[in-house]
Amino acid sequence: MVPLSVLDLVPVSDGSSATDALAHSTRLVQRAEELGFTRYWVAEHHAMPGIASSSPPVLIAHLAGATERIRVGSGGVMLPNHRPLVVAEQFGTLEALHPDRIDLGLGRAPGTDPATAAALRGIDAAQLNAPDDFPDQLVELASYFRGDADVLAVPAKGNAPSLWLLGSSGYSAKVAGMLGLPFAFAHHFSARNTMPALELYREHFRPSAMLSEPYSMIAASVFCAPTGDAARELALPSALQFLHLRLGDPRELPGPEEVAAFEWTDAARAFVEQRQADQIIGDPATVRAGVEELVSRTGVDELMVTTATYRGEDRLRSYELLADAVGVPGATTAA
Fold it and tell me: pTM, whole model, 2 decimals?
């Protein structure tokens, strides 16, 4: 089995708080380390009531300080929202504090709505349609870690984290390949583009100082429970939350009562069924088979798993069952 890792959006459940969500993420990263997961990445999203992960560097510092071995990183920092020099200084500091444990996953999407993106960048909303300078930002960022930029970035110089490029389309796949960077694809919400993007990445890959050959990872949604029915029940709140998001009404993760009371139209059911078809949901045997098939079909070098459940203990247990089912080194499930 390829190395397994965790992608955490720090989900906020209805009736709970960001404080609760962040506390659970601290418990989860510690358990993930015990279970033998390789990486623990946190996302960057803004203005979303159901996601408490808006500042990856701050959260990474906390999570890395709460653990000893597991790699901690961003999945990812949305680079257009930030000055490359600031990102270099932040992640150089993290790498200096936690040597050889920090990953810097970089994305191009805003991670929010246009008004919030404009506010983050200090520009007018109309300027969001300006020509893309993302590749130039990547080159600038890397120069600070190498120490050959016009500006000296301390402590970035000499403290480079592991750089990854994130994507959900062919654009980032091409850029990652041409720059010779590891590539992480968002299969969990862009599954139809997974294989085309991976093929583009491999086709356009050029060896670099970092990599001599392509290296890829995908993130997949996984819900594992003792029975298939229990797993499908765990997955429903996340599906309903995503439906609300697509309807322009972002919310916290709904509880069982809200899920049961929701008026499921044929269109809503079709949307959820299509989304869940791209997820791995089931008992441990079913999940193991689904993970093995996905890894074999895509040929990725690593797999990252994201799970959002209404109850934090269910999310923790899902990762424990997954680790035991697929044979993650060091996996020991709770009794």
Answer: 0.94
